[in-house]
Write a structure and sequence with these properties.
The chain is of the alpha+beta class. It is 34% helix and 33% strand. The protein folds into two domains: 52 residues; 96 residues. A five-stranded antiparallel β-sheet has the order 7-6-5-11-10, with helices on one face. Strands 1-2-3-4 form a four-stranded antiparallel β-sheet, with helices on one face. The two termini are 25 Å apart.
Length: 174
């Protein structure tokens, strides 16, 4: 990035944040199983393999959900005049428009999955998706302006439509 560039001339996008209820349920179940495990150990009883397995499984599940929620809260895409920037707490990718090789778009039930591939790095994001249960929207995930972000990246990188397949479609260099 050029030091003379006006850092205020960019657009920043953040994804919809899902409820943390699932995370709390996962941690509650984990604590419940671990408390049962502790009681069995304190009373000198043999701990069934299923209790050990469930305790470890639930711990890793709760950790994974917490990590995912933390990453969602740190995620942002910034569109500058000369590049696009993506960060999510664990990864930070900066790709200048000329270095974008292609953009892959894979439709799914919960928004489109978009992969931006540069010469040295890449990043993924989702367009807006809605979780419907019996016709009622229970959650929204992905970027509300995901289609706008996709269009801006394709336009600013000068990409053209490529082949369409059952798995999705992509944009590539001329």
């Amino acid at each position: 990035m050029d030091n003379d560039q006006d850092l205020t001339s960019y657009l920043q996008f953040k994804p919809e944040l899902i409820s943390r209820r699932g995370e709390m349920v996962a941690w509650f179940c984990t604590l419940l199983v671990w408390a049962g495990w502790l009681v069995l150990v304190l009373y000198g009883s043999k701990v069934p393999v299923t209790v050990s397995f469930m305790g470890i499984f639930l711990l890793f599940t709760a950790l994974a959900i917490s990590l995912g929620n933390w990453m969602d809260r740190k995620t942002k895409i910034s569109i500058y005049n000369d590049h696009v920037s993506f960060e999510n707490g664990l990864r930070h990718a900066i790709i200048v428009w000329e270095d974008i090789k292609n953009v892959e778009v894979i439709p799914s039930n919960w928004g489109k999955k978009v992969r931006v591939v540069g010469k040295r790095s890449h990043f993924d994001f989702r367009t807006l998706g809605e979780v419907n249960v019996q016709g009622e929207i229970k959650a929204r995930l992905g970027f509300t302006d995901g289609d706008k972000i996709l269009d801006m990246i394709v336009q600013k990188a000068g990409l053209i439509p490529g082949e369409v397949s059952n798995a999705g479609y992509y944009y590539t260099r001329r």
